[in-house]
Design brief:
The complex is a heterodimer of chains A (about 425) and B (about 250). Chain A is an alpha+beta fold. Chain A folds into two domains: about 60-175, Uridine Diphospho-n-acetylenolpyruvylglucosamine Reductase, domain 3 (2-Layer Sandwich); about 180-235 and about 250-405, Vanillyl-alcohol Oxidase, Chain A, domain 3 (3-Layer(aba) Sandwich), CATH 3.40.462. Chain A is built from twelve helices and 20 strands. Chain A has helices spanning about 80-85, 105-110, 120, 150-155, 190-200, 260-270, 285-290, 315-330, 370-385, 400-405, 410-415, 425-430, and strands at about 15-20, 35, 50-55, 60-65, 70-75, 90-95, 130-135, 140-145, 165-170, 175, 180-185, 205-210, 225-230, 245-250, 280-285, 295, 305-315, 340-345, 360-365, 390. The longest helix of chain A has 18 residues, at about 315-330. Chain A is globular and about 60 Å long. Chain B is an alpha/beta fold and about 250 residues long. Chain B has one domain (about 5-250): NAD(P)-binding Rossmann-like Domain (Rossmann fold). In chain B, the strands form two sheets. In chain B, strands 3-2-1-4-5-6-9 form a seven-stranded parallel beta sheet, sandwiched between helices. In chain B, strands 7-8 form a two-stranded parallel sheet. Chain B has nine helices and nine strands. In chain B, helix 1 (about 15-25) crosses helix 7. The chains are: A alpha+beta (about 425), B alpha/beta (about 250).
């Protein structure tokens, strides 16, 4: 059974087929269709209950690479992991990477993913030069931002609904090293976070903050944490190779290992970890993808799975809104290992349904605990709505149609580009 | 350690062979890839040329052939020898399909076809190329068999027969070529998530990704292993399966 990373919802599909080659007509399986790459989204944007999934993992061929210009063309099932194994030794880096490198290029376009460098580089779609889109009428569109801006804007962030993305041409970014210069610093309140962020953002292309969402800080409110900044190093540290030490969660615990007790302890210890205010060399893998070293980390939440809640609040509402969200979460006692706060930059995302926009984005994981979790989300939704914010479709298994439409006002314009034979669980849910 | 600098891959668009070819291309090897479908072969060659920094197509070559048809073998082997020069380090035989046992049970034709695609055609190619390796006195011949060849089971014994026949042939060939310094490697993958096994429930610890199998294949070829179960734990599983007495085994639903 194919599930998404958070294992909610659990659904059955009418058919699942693996696409083995491009230049093929769409397979004859029950409609509607949906492409499914690595299944790393959290919810039902990558699921198509009672309909069909087209697995794209075998569409992973490189097509062309210009080593002088850093321009790469590949099939859309290629993962960022495979891309980086190839490109980093050759001095090129993906322009934008999300928190895991186990996503496909097609998925990165469909969710118009963002990374810790959003305030410098914008979203993934900004760097996409072209892609091909196979439609159910048999046509294959060559889409570029210049020649077919409407199809480009519909498909970037378009959740795979405009057709099958087959090939992608991506502009990579030059790097001189596989290592990064990185620093970290504790902050004892949200107020200090905003000060740190204002200081760091110009000089450091990658920034992110982890928030202790359970234990109060200096001002008596939740909002203390650790701020990290990094940039690609210009040299390799002498004599230091890097080998990722893989760990794994071998099986599903019968109940979630994430509970009040473990969360409070974890957050406290994490806050107390040594920080490194002076920049030092860190390999890009642990800095950009700390969780990728723990295979199947989603299993710690047990069989019931978990939710991720990621919202963006516009600049004028960000300070008060983030504090209100954290206060609400702390009061509920339901916390998260992974509370991540990041300020988005001004660079506009190209998609009609792109999630990144100026403001601050907060992401948290919550174990599925039925009614108490739903009550908490209702409170958080109210704060997001009040602030004119939006929830991230790629991290959503439960937002209401009203919240979706409020957060993505171009949804009606987008709907006219949806392929009549493509759909997803998410789309049917928010359009109902 | 055997060099894998000039390698011919027969059935190169199969998932496992593609993973092997990609790894070799990334190491800068010269490759000759044989496959049946023109578009898929072109896609693979383009992919390998990017990975191997071979923009002017000097190291990565390919040709079309339906290798289940033994009449194609002579010309293809000649082309490969021309493209890579006469000092080919290694060959990997990787074509095949997974016939439906229920269909074979109802059809003599389907049974013989499955034996040809997965067994006799591979043996025909081995018989053709062995003298060249013997004459040169070095190199590696590797072929993908299957754990299914270790014991006949009602669920896939036609496929198992073909792979068992191949394994026995390789055993004899290994014995013959040992005296010329040529390594013959029998590869026995277990359950692999490839298009061939689509439709199975492929969750669980026994299922492996093609990249992992490819890694094991390259190690076995470099080291000149005789028989390699991939991943390694299949040796244990198949040892137990082989040890079950036949009067019991025939009563099992495997």
């Amino acid at each position: 059974m194919t599930a998404s990373w958070n294992r909610i919802p659990r659904v059955e599909h009418a058919a699942e087929v693996t696409l083995n080659a491009r230049h093929q007509p769409l397979p004859t399986v029950p409609r509607p269709l949906l492409a499914h790459g690595m299944g790393r989204s959290y919810g039902d944007v990558c699921l198509n209950p009672d309909a069909s999934l087209l697995h794209t993992r075998a569409l992973d061929h490189f097509i062309a690479f210009d080593p002088e210009a850093g321009l790469l063309t590949a099939e859309a099932g290629l993962t960022l992991d495979a891309l980086m194994r190839f490109s980093v030794p050759r001095g090129w880096f993906p322009p934008v990477v999300p928190g895991t490198r186990f996503v496909t290029l097609g998925g990165a376009i469909a969710s118009d993913v963002h990374g810790k460098n959003h305030h410098h580089a914008g979203s993934f779609g900004v760097h996409v030069q072209a892609f091909t889109l196979r439609r159910s009428d048999g046509s294959v569109l060559n889409v570029t931002p210049g020649d077919t801006p409407d199809w480009f804007a519909a498909t970037v962030g378009g959740l795979g609904l405009t057709g099958l993305i087959e090939t992608v041409t991506l502009q990579l970014a030059p790097v001189r090293s596989a290592w990064m210069r990185a620093w970290s610093e504790r902050f004892d309140s949200l107020e200090t976070f905003w000060e740190l962020d204002a200081r760091a953002e110009r000089e450091w292309p990658y920034t992110v903050a982890w928030i202790d969402c359970l234990n109060p800080g200096a001002d008596g409110r939740v909002g203390r944490g650790i701020y990290s900044g990094a940039r690609h190093a210009t040299t390799e540290p002498a004599g230091r190779g890097y080998r990722e030490r893989l760990r794994g969660v071998p099986l599903d615990p019968p109940v979630s290992l994430v509970n009040r007790l473990t969360l409070r302890a974890f957050n406290h210890l994490y806050y107390r970890q040594p920080v490194h205010p002076t920049p030092r060399a860190v390999h890009h893998l642990p800095w950009l993808f700390p969780l990728d070293a723990i295979r199947h980390w989603n299993r710690i939440y047990g069989r019931r799975g978990f939710y991720q809640y990621q919202c963006v609040l516009p600049p004028q509402a960000a300070r008060d809104g983030v504090q209100a969200l954290l206060d609400t979460i702390a009061a509920s006692g339901q916390g998260s290992f992974l509370a991540v706060l990041k300020r988005f930059g001004e660079r506009p995302a190209p998609g009609m349904l792109s999630f990144p926009r100026p403001g601050a984005t907060l992401a948290l994981d919550f174990p599925e605990q039925g009614g108490t979790t739903r009550d908490l989300f209702a409170h958080l939704d109210a704060i997001v709505t009040e602030a004119d914010g939006a929830l991230y479709p790629a991290k959503d298994a439960r937002m209401s149609p009203a919240l979706f439409r409020a957060g993505f006002p171009r949804w009606e314009e987008f709907a006219s580009f949806v392929d009549p034979e493509f759909s997803s669980g998410f789309w049917r849910r928010v359009i109902a | 350690m055997n060099r894998l600098q000039r390698v011919v891959i027969f059935g190169a668009t199969s998932a496992i062979a593609t993973a092997v070819a990609r790894e070799l291309a990334g190491r800068g090897a010269h490759l000759f890839c044989v496959a049946r479908d023109a578009e898929r072969l072109d896609d693979l060659l383009a992919d390998l040329r990017v990975r191997g920094d071979d923009r002017d197509a000097r190291r990565i070559h390919g040709a079309l052939a339906d290798l289940a048809d033994v009449d194609t073998h002579a010309a293809i082997w000649e082309q490969a020898s021309e493209a890579l020069g006469s000092n080919i380090d290694a060959v990997l035989l990787a074509w095949g399909n997974l016939p439906d046992q229920a269909t074979c049970d109802q059809s003599v034709e389907a049974t013989l076809d499955a034996l040809r695609v997965n067994g006799t055609s591979a043996i025909a190619l081995l018989a053709r190329i062995a003298p060249d390796f013997e004459a040169r006195g070095h190199g590696v011949i590797a072929a993908i068999g299957s754990v299914a060849g270790d014991r006949g089971r009602q669920s896939n014994y036609t496929y198992g027969t073909a792979k068992g026949m191949l394994a026995t042939y390789l055993q004899g060939l290994r014995n013959r070529l040992f005296f010329s310094g040529v390594d013959v490697v029998t590869l026995k993958p277990g359950f692999v998530r490839t298009p061939m096994t689509e439709g199975f429930n492929r969750t669980g610890a026994l299922w492996a990704e093609p990249e992992r199998i490819a890694h094991g294949i390259l190690r076995a070829m470099q080291r000149g292993r005789d028989v390699a179960y991939l991943p390694w734990f299949w040796l244990g599983i198949m040892t137990i399966i082989r040890l079950i007495p036949e009067y019991l085994f025939k009563r099992l639903k495997l």
